[in-house]
Structure formats: C-alpha cells, structure tokens
Automatic annotation (TrEMBL):
<feature type="domain" description="F-box/LRR-repeat protein 15-like leucin rich repeat">
    <location>
        <begin position="250"/>
        <end position="380"/>
    </location>
</feature>
<protein>
    <recommendedName>
        <fullName>F-box/LRR-repeat protein 15-like leucin rich repeat domain-containing protein</fullName>
    </recommendedName>
</protein>
<dbReference type="Pfam" id="PF25372">
    <property type="entry name" value="DUF7885"/>
</dbReference>
<dbReference type="InterPro" id="IPR006553">
    <property type="entry name" value="Leu-rich_rpt_Cys-con_subtyp"/>
</dbReference>
<dbReference type="InterPro" id="IPR036047">
    <property type="entry name" value="F-box-like_dom_sf"/>
</dbReference>
<dbReference type="InterPro" id="IPR050648">
    <property type="entry name" value="F-box_LRR-repeat"/>
</dbReference>
<dbReference type="InterPro" id="IPR057207">
    <property type="entry name" value="FBXL15_LRR"/>
</dbReference>
<dbReference type="InterPro" id="IPR032675">
    <property type="entry name" value="LRR_dom_sf"/>
</dbReference>
<keyword id="KW-0833">Ubl conjugation pathway</keyword>
Length: 389
C-alpha cells in the first residue's frame, strides 16, 4: 500500500536549535551524526576504510551540505539508478606498481631529487641499486667534498698475509679532486699516485696530516701530481727546509704549513722565491722571525691576498713593517697568537693595508682599545674583525 506524504511531512527534518543541526537517520543503518556550528564536521568512521585519511574542510571556510551525485548523473540517463547505486562511493585509484617502479628508476627525476640529500646520505643512497649508484656517482654530486683516507684504510690483508693497496676506482668515478691523507709515509703516497687514475692531472688539492713524509716523498709527490695547486702540511715533522727548496713548484697558489718543527725563516725564503703565483699562505711556525717577513717579492705583492700567521711568537712590530711594505694588497690578515704585536703594529696595518676586509687579532694580549681606534679610522672596507681571547 502506497503511503502519501502530507505537506507537513515534507517540512525539512533539519531543525536548528542552540547552534546544533540534527541530521535524520541514514537509510544504511549506520546511525546519525551531529554538526556543531563553527566546528568541522565529524565523519562516521564506519563509513570509510581506516587506510583512507579523513579530509575535513578548513575551519575558516563555511561548511555546506550538498547532495551526493547519483550514478545516473555520472554515467548517463540510461543507467538504472537504485538507492544502493547512488550511495556507493567512488573507488580511490592508486598508482600501478609498474608506474612506481618506473618513477624511482627514472634518471631524469633522480638527477633532480638527489640534490637535496647530504653527503653522508648520498653515500648510503648509492647502495640502493645500480641505477641510483650510476646517477649518484656523477662528479657534479661530489663537488667540494674532500675524502679523508687514513693510512690503515689504504691496504687490505690478503689470505697469505700480504698487503694490497685498495681500489680507488669508486673515487675516480665520482671525480674527486681533493684528498686528505692522514698518517701516510712516502711509500703510501707513491701507491696512492699509482692507483688513483686522476692523481696525475685531476687532483687539485692535497692535505697531509700527521704524516711521515720526507724530503724525497715531497719531491716525488709534487713532481708526479702535475695538477696540484693547493697543498697543506700539518704535523709533518720529517721534511726539512731543504725539501721545500727542492720540491716547491710555481703552479702552487695556496700553501698551508702548521705544526712542522723544521720550518723557520729559510722555509719562508723558499716559499717567496719559488711560488710567484701564491695567493694564500697560512703559517703556524714558532721559529719564524721578523726577517722572514722581508723575503716576499714584488710579484707576490700583487698576487698574495690572504696571509695567516698563527702563533708566530717571534714576530714583532718590525716584522709587521716588513710585511705591510712587501704585501700591500692583502684583503685578509690573521695575526692570531702573535703575542708580541702591540698597538703600534696594528696602527701600521691600518695605515698601509687599506684593502683589508678581514682582520684577526685574537690572542694578542698586548693590544688595547687604542688599536680599535686605529682600525675604525682607517680600515673602511673591513667586514670582519676577530678579537677573541
């Protein structure tokens, strides 16, 4: 028997009361939900899978209840739209597994994505698969990175007890141009040169720390590595000033020597005479005196822009006089730990080195506030001043 609704029965069942909207019971028997005015709607969680996240409108936007589209409106007028069909939600489409595999192996995508990872993370990601390794082993991903190789890591022990130098092919594929070698000897350096394919022309920078390199080893290294432009010697006590005279090459533009007990004034003489293209010199030597500062030539007066003198205890204001006249184009100067420098020395620097942008006067106990007045009056291009103690 067909029941007809009266006009009063057609009145909307949603009645607003105290900011609450009461929804009528749903025909699927899943209960009802209430919507509080001014708050996001709370969906009945029985209506959706737990793996599908709930999507709520932003709280700042008005919330409107709209009827669900029917199957007839989506698929055409010829479809028999039953109540079950109209209430059935559309299925969510997930990417095909094959498409996902193509994306993670797409080299064009990987070339852009892998830029966002750190060096340590790239080392791990290169082990994921051959494709990722191929992409990550391009030299562009390793520019500016310096591998640190300890002497004990350069050899593998064979079953018969003999030592074999490790393969450096993986480093060559990534095109490393700088290396830090720790605790190596003359033999280790020769083995490195013979086993690293880019050592003759491709290596631009080498740092030797706490190594037992001698004059002979230093000479072989600088003779064989024709592309070397930056050299650092730290804690290497077996080479002498005679080794510097016999090995230094004019192609070097940056040299750093620290904690090497055999370095004194004669070493500075070798540096000034043999390195006319030197642009940066860092020196930590306890036996360098004022005399050494007068060895720099007119050629280096134009090319040398950075001079760092760390803990050169024997340098006084007289050495500063020699320095400012020999190197007038300095833009960065460090006198850190030069404990005999006084306010008069700082005045000489301020009056003669007007191009300075960086000045380090840390651990200079004889400098007072008067030195700051000289700096403020004359060094108008200064950008960095270090006064730590």
């Amino acid at each position: 028997m067909l029941n007809m609704s009266t006009p009063t029965d057609l009145k909307s069942p949603c009645v607003t009361r105290n900011g609450m909207v009461k929804l009528p019971p749903q025909p699927n028997g899943l209960g009802s939900a209430s919507i509080t005015k001014g708050t996001p709607a709370a969906k009945n969680r029985l209506c959706q899978s737990s793996s599908v996240p709930t999507i709520l409108p932003p709280p700042s936007l008005p919330y409107h209840l709209e009827p669900l589209p029917t199957a007839a409106s989506l698929l055409g007028p010829d479809l028999d739209a039953s109540p079950l069909t109209t209430m059935k939600p559309p299925l969510r489409q997930f990417p095909h597994p094959l498409l996902e595999r193509q994306l993670v192996l797409d080299e064009k995508l990987l070339n852009r994505l892998l830029w966002y990872f750190t060096t340590a993370e790239k080392c791990v990601l290169a082990q994921v698969c051959k494709t990722w390794r191929k992409v990550l082993y391009q030299p562009k991903f390793w520019e500016g990175v310096t591998p640190i190789l300890h002497a004990k890591e350069l050899y593998t022990i064979l079953p018969n007890g003999e030592k074999e130098f490790v393969s450096l092919q993986a480093f060559a594929l990534r095109g490393f141009q700088s290396f830090c070698l720790v605790g190596v000897s003359d033999l280790d350096i020769c083995e490195f040169i013979d086993n690293y394919p880019l050592s003759k022309k491709g290596v631009k920078s080498v740092s030797l720390k706490r190594s037992t390199i001698t004059d002979a080893g230093l000479e072989v290294m600088l003779e064989q590595m024709q592309g070397l432009m930056h050299l650092e010697l730290s804690g290497c006590n077996d080479f002498t000033e005679a080794g510097l005279w016999s090995s230094l090459n004019a192609r070097l533009t940056s040299l750093s020597v620290s904690d090497c007990i055999n370095v004194a004034d004669d070493a500075i003489a070798a540096i000034s005479q043999l390195l006319p293209n030197l642009s940066e010199l860092s020196l930590q030597a306890y036996h360098v005196t004022d005399t050494a500062m007068a060895y720099f030539t007119a050629k280096q007066g134009y090319t040398t822009h950075t001079l760092r003198l760390h803990s050169c205890w024997e340098i006084t204001n007289h050495g500063v006089v020699n320095m400012v006249h020999s190197l007038p184009n300095l833009t960065a100067l460090s006198l850190s730990g030069c404990s005999k420098i006084t306010d008069d020395g700082v005045e000489l620097v301020a009056e003669n080195l007007r191009k300075l942008r960086s000045l380090d006067l840390s651990w200079c106990p004889r400098i007072t506030d008067m030195a700051l007045e000289y700096i403020a009056c004359d060094l108008h291009k200064l950008e960095e001043l270090v006064l730590d103690r």
